[in-house]
Description:
- It contains 21 helices and no strands.
- The chain is mainly α.
- The chain has one domain (40-231, 271-467): Growth Hormone, Chain: A (Up-down Bundle), CATH 1.20.1250.20.
- Helix 9 (154-164) packs antiparallel against helix 20 and helix 18 (346-365) packs antiparallel against helix 21.
- The protein starts with a helix and ends in a 21-residue tail after the last helix.
- Residues 48-465 form the Major facilitator superfamily (MFS) profile domain.
Amino acid sequence: MDNDSDKGAYGANQVERIEKAQLSIPDEEDEFTEREARKIVHKIDRRLLVTIGFMYCVSLIDRTNISAAAIAGLAKDLVLTGNRYSIVTLAFFPTYIVFQPTSTVLVRKIGPRIHIAVITVFWGVAMLGMGFTKTFGQLTALRVVIGLLEAGFFPSAVYLLSTWYTRYELGRRYGLFYLIGSVTSAFSGILAFGIIHLEGAGGLRGWRWIFIIEGIVTILLGFVGYWLLVDFPESNRKTWKFLSMEERAWVIRRVNSDRGDVEAPRFRLSEYLRAGLDWKLWAYGLIFFGSTTMSYALAFFLPIILNDNLHYDVGTSQALVAPPYAFAGIFMYAVGWLGDRYRMRGPIIVINMVVALIGLPILGWHPDPKIRYLGSFLLVAGANSNVPATLAYQATNIRGQWKRAIGSAIMVGFGGIGGIAGSLVFRSQDNPEYRPGLWACIAVSLLNIILVGICSISFYFDNKKADRGEKELEADDEGFQPGFRYTY
């Protein structure tokens, strides 16, 4: 009886301590008031979140702007007949997938400022080169190179963000990060529509100017990112200071209080790979696969579907891509706030998938083109909101820096596989209805709901065992902290 009381008191104290850290309320040893603490968090948001968000924006634009170029003359000029367009779009992903695991190790070794900024500049150069391609082979080769370089960005960015925030701040932060990137990049259709009016300037086709101008912007943002990006909170590397030593110490204390894994132990390949044996990491990856299959399919093919299926002209198809993504941004932030506020992760994924499952049949089968276009709002909102929701689901339920690193690599690797699937689900021979692609999106939505159910059942029984003192969760990981519980 006394033992049970002690455990209950310990659990209550643990929850209270974690809640104080998550709400930015200082303990007695902290020198900041609640208002000052919130200002520090907002300072991190402005410096880190906004910088990474806009770099992600150009990353998304550069990997998906080929759809806008395709309907502006690229497909005709480079003879992308048959399956050639699908081959070009998926050529990005093999190197993108293969080089994911090394990126989170490299970012720890050389630091995020150098790592992320350098690869951004280099893929901008490759994007610039796409504006001067003459053949299908040249275009495909450059897409392979861009995949290799971008492999280092997304997992490193996700990993970096997870080191600066507590678990129940990550839902909104990942939502804002993805919102800045995906919603801003959605307006690339309007940007591309404006750029193609440079048709003939310098003796170049309008679609070439899409790659040239956007490549130059990426290069410039890479240089700017070197000055604005920050290192890991505990790093001793020389970096541009935006927090005082006292503020950084406060950040480290609150993250340690929340999950106890600020300091990364020395890298050992065997331990890094052993962390990948946890089946839950692969389940998170499969959920991410389902989400990115839909998000990439929409990024690559929504302008084409609007053009072919709903019979809008080229300019209108490019412009009409933006409103669904703008709506998705509002929806994305709302469900991110909901997940953080009520400390839930799995139900948010289920909500997103249900919204997508409502939008899919409307887009695919409703007889009125205007109503079908409205269906794209629900589909884009559900599919894209599930990307940050899955990132938060994983990050909340992982402990330890190297497990977090390989978890990010596995997840984003599966995201790359989703990109390959998204490149193939809407086939030219299915024009104009694209029914097989719609059924594929329905299938992965249902798969995500099933996987969340399996994980939730496992979390429930593991948490119960931990409550009874039969086991400590994540005890085999270097980030083990007594009192940790999985979040449904």
